[in-house]
């Protein structure tokens, strides 16, 4: 596994395929493998796919100290091997938005999936605080809570509870606590990369209104919705791959010959 250097310690990432770079950023309670491994083959024939683990997930250590959005954005930026397309899911969407706003020279195109701008309403806050409390106090209930809020009822029935109740990364609690603090409202208007925002109409963790708010705040962004729960990467893998692939390979105005 390749390693990128960052002041907070080494950042481990996966690398597959050939062509222009495509960086995929995982969400809270996941890592590069659990969020993206099954989608990489559908993208690596047209892109060099980079899948970093940020602090507390996968092989990247969480060395303590304050976990901040700037830290995670810096770790993701360190994994870039040159200007690349960038895709983020959930907390990864917030991190990707920060990278695009603060490091525009790195980001060719941007896709934000199931993200949010800030702790905008009581429903989002209640969901995240409950998730954090269960992580601190009740591992069994914490494991059950994920499928309840992460997927649509039909997907849970079809997949089975046992298949959806894995062990979370060691950094999950600190990542949830960061979820409660992030606020990218000042950053979103700074994004200049062509952007696609994707919301999920059956998202019980981060209701779809938050993705719509991200879209509204990013100048010139495009928007799509899928009939899915929060973890659309697993619930609608073919559809999300198709949206990402179509957007990052589409020729943009003034980009003749780019693919």
Automatic annotation (TrEMBL):
GO molecular function: bromide peroxidase activity
UniProt entry tagged with the keyword Oxidoreductase: yes
Top-level taxon in the UniProt lineage: Bacteria
Gene, per the UniProt record: bpoC
Enzyme class: oxidoreductase
Enzyme nomenclature, EC number: 1.11.1.18
Keywords, sorted A to Z: Oxidoreductase, Peroxidase
Coiled-coil segments: none
Protein name: Non-heme bromoperoxidase BpoC
Residue intervals of the AB hydrolase-1 domain: 22-241
Gene3D superfamilies, A to Z: alpha/beta hydrolase (3.40.50.1820)
């Amino acid at each position: 596994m390749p390693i990128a250097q960052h002041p907070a310690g080494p950042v481990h990432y996966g690398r597959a395929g050939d062509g222009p770079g495509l960086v995929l950023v995982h969400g809270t309670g996941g890592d590069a493998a659990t969020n993206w491994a099954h989608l990489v083959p559908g993208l690596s024939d047209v892109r060099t796919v980079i899948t970093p683990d940020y602090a507390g997930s996968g092989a990247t250590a969480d060395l303590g100290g304050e976990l901040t959005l700037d830290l995670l954005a810096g770790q993701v930026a360190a994994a870039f091997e040159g200007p690349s397309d960038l895709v983020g899911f959930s907390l990864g969407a917030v991190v990707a938005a920060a990278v695009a706003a603060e490091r525009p020279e790195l980001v060719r195109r941007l896709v934000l999936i199931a993200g949010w701008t800030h702790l905008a309403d009581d429903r989002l806050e209640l969901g995240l605080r409950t998730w954090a409390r269960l992580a601190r106090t009740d591992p069994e209930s914490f494991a059950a809570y994920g499928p309840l809020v992460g997927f649509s009822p039909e997907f849970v029935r079809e997949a089975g509870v046992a298949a959806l109740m894995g062990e979370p990364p060691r950094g999950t609690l600190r990542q949830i606590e960061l979820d409660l603090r992030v606020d990218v409202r000042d950053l979103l208007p700074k994004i200049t990369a062509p952007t696609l925002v994707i919301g999920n109409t059956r998202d019980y963790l981060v209701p779809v209104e938050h993705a719509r708010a991200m879209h509204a705040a990013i100048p010139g962004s495009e928007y799509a919705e899928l009939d899915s729960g929060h973890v659309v990467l697993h619930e609608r893998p073919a559809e999300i791959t198709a949206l990402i692939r179509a957007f990052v390979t589409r020729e943009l105005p003034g980009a003749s010959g780019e693919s």
